[in-house]
Amino acid sequence: MSRLPRHVPIALLTSLVLAVGVGVGVGWWYLTRPPENEGRFINRLRTIDNNWVEIEVYSPQPFPVRNAPMYMWIGGEQIFFGGFFRPDSRFVAFRLAPEQFAHIQTGDLVRITYGVSGDGWAFGTIDKGRLDKGPILP
Questions:
Q1: Residue spans per domain, the chain
Q2: Quick one: the chain helix, strand, coil %, rounded to 5?
Q3: For 125, phi and psi rounded to 5 degrees?
Q4: 73-96, pLDDT tens digit by residue?
Q5: For the chain, first and last CA: distance in Å?
Q6: What is the CA radius of gyration of the chain?
Q7: Does the structural domain 41-130 have CATH classification 2.60.40?
Q8: From CA 126, how far away is CA 107, in angstroms rounded?
């Protein structure tokens, strides 16, 4: 059995160290970059008395109370009937008719704005399969 030349194991070891180092560097970037939605997410999708579908969202920073109506936008749908249904202003819920919920597609982006136009907050994409599966946060 012949031995490998002396420089081959050193080259393999150097390649391994570089691969691990790059992997750790990429992993560190992934863990330290700000998340897309900055901690905001859709907390719950539930039906209420078969008359409404409620979509509750959560933000780690409380929503500011303003003298303007809040709107939820999901894809092309605009939902107006919403607000603070809990005493905790980090949670906001919107209610829509089942017919309107049927127009929404899984994967549509969820945003909330004050007023019809203007800046708002993103909450990721909706997953209609989570309907009546329970909240993420109680």
A1: 1-33, 41-130
A2: 25, 30, 45
A3: -105, 155
A4: 998 899 998 989 999 999 999 999
A5: 66
A6: 23
A7: yes
A8: 5
